[in-house]
Amino acid sequence: MNARSNRDATPAALACRDVIVRRAHATVLDGVSFAVRAGELVSLLGVNGAGKSTLLRVLLGLIEPEAGDVLLHGEALHRQRRRAIARQVAWVPQHHAPQFPYTVEQIVALGRLPHLGTGFALWRAPRVHDRDAVHAALDALQIAHLAQRDYGALSGGERQRTLLARALAQGARVLLLDEPFSGLDYGHHLRLLDRLARLAADGYAIVNTTHRPDDACNVSTRVALLDGGRLVADGAPRDVLDAQAVSALYRARVEQIDVDGQRFFRAASDASDASDAADAADASAAPASSHPPASTR
Fold first, then answer.
1. Strands 67-72 and 222-227: what pairing?
2. Which DSSP letter does residue 221 get?
3. What is the pTM assigned to this prediction?
4. pLDDT tens digits, residue range 71-91?
5. Is residue 156 part of a domain?
6. CB of 176 within 8 A of CB of 89?
7. Is residue 107 assigned to a domain?
8. What pLDDT, in 10s, does the model give residues 100-123?
9. pLDDT for 128
10. Does 167 map to a domain?
11. Confidence class of residue 272 from pLDDT cuts 50, 70 and 90?
């Protein structure tokens, strides 16, 4: 049995089938079927506006599709209670603005809410195992020293690590991350890559959106490409990501470099010449303006 057959035989932790989402008369997702399984780290790539964040929100149940189904461990997502979903699926958004002046530790502690009664409040003494989960998450993301800092005063990268810690404290085994590397310095970027790979190896099901095909190719277990709201490729990283695919996806000429078992991408040596030629062609094809240039008016 090949790798694809093994993957298909494994039940999906989270999946959608034939999902359609329209917004303001535009089709954002067009018949998308997608799944993530335990032990997978799936990278979702596409240009801005391709539908990546929308797909994550559909999988979370935050956006109801016009058509199609979303299944969490084989059961319809819309039939499950939000608290039950939150115990199984954690969400790390690209942007987050707190409504109150929480400390970092309090933000991470919010991840424990799905496991607590409705009367829980952050100022009450948490249970021992909840407190342990919060401290373990702070340590895992190396932000224990920020625990009493005002979350709103943090840098973008520090906020991102705090939200990741909240997801870990939540205890969910399915993680959805929208551009989790945004704002991270290079060192923390590498450490997060390693942590996600280890979480997947421990049986977590992880989907992250990214604009870095190098990371996707070298760390992910699977890569999916969204283009114009359609899933145009989905498979093993090296089967999906090569110079031709990346060039087509991002409308930019790139070349690949394979070295020591890893694959990297860079701008093709003739990319600037091709870009200049394309710009010139666009300019010559544009209709002449009836007004003089702004600088001469």
1. unpaired
2. S
3. 0.84
4. 999 999 999 999 999 999 999
5. yes
6. yes
7. yes
8. 889 999 999 999 988 876 555 555
9. 87
10. yes
11. low
How confident is the model over 197-205, as a mean pLDDT?
Answer: 95
* pLDDT score of 296: 35
From the centroid of its chain, how far is CA 291? Answer: 45
Q: How far is CA 95 from CA 54, 74, 76, 179, 190, in A?
A: 14, 30, 28, 9, 21
- CATH number of the domain enclosing 160: 3.40.50.300
- Determine the Cα–Cα distance for residues 19 and 166; give it in Å rounded to an integer: 29
Contacting residues for 250 by C-beta, under 8 A, at least 6 apart: 47
The tally of CA atoms less than 13 A away on the side-chain side of residue 227 is 11
Those residues whose C-beta lies under 8 Å from the C-beta of residue 216, and which sit 6 or more positions away, are: 43, 45, 210, 223, 237, 241
Tokens of 31: 């018949």
Strand partners, 262: 259
Give the CA-trace dihedral at 136, 137, 140, 146, to 10 degrees: -100
Tokens of 198: 């280890």
156 within 8 A of 129, measured Cβ to Cβ: no
Residue 40 maps to a domain: no
As for how many domains the chain has, the answer is: 1
Structure token digits, residue 146: 């920020």
Condensed to tens digits (0 to 9), the pLDDT of residues 123-145 reads 555 688 889 999 999 999 999 99
Residue 234 parent element (H or E) = strand 230-235
Full domain range(s) for residue 119: 89-171
Q: Amino acid identity of 281? A: A
Separation between Cα atoms, residue 265 and residue 252, nearest integer Å? 11
